[in-house]
Amino acid sequence: MSAHVTAELPECAVARFSGPLAEGSLQEVAQSFADILGERIRNLVIDCVAIDDLSPEGIGLLLTLRATLRKRGGELILTGLRPRLERLLTSLDLMQLFTTAADEQAALQFLRNPGKGMFPLAANCPACSAQIEIGSPGRGRCASCQAVITALPDGSIILG
Q: Which end of the chain is more exposed for a tag (fewer CB within 10 A), N or C?
């Protein structure tokens, strides 16, 4: 795993690692995250592009990291989610718990100016294609079909 603290946001670390986030490597990964977070890190960006597998224990670690950072008034942002991992988190109804971004730059932009520049957003409902206006990241309902829609900080829209 490699990690660095960003120069422009000294309370933010960016972590990259490869391989599985599963039982065999979990102890080492958890210790690495503990070392990265230290006392002053409030925001953590995890580049997920090279994560091969995500076990239930790995998901538990991510949820624990999220809770720790939220207590500090910060955020855990997952970037570069591979489609398989995104489907896994979606099928477990966990995607709405994580803040995601397309890449490190989008995550850092969000941390500098949460929701600025992207919202309000005009989009089509993914369920019925009706035009909807979204004021900020979060969950809401389509006025036409009443589908639950989640607007992510990177501007993407998902059902649920």
A: C
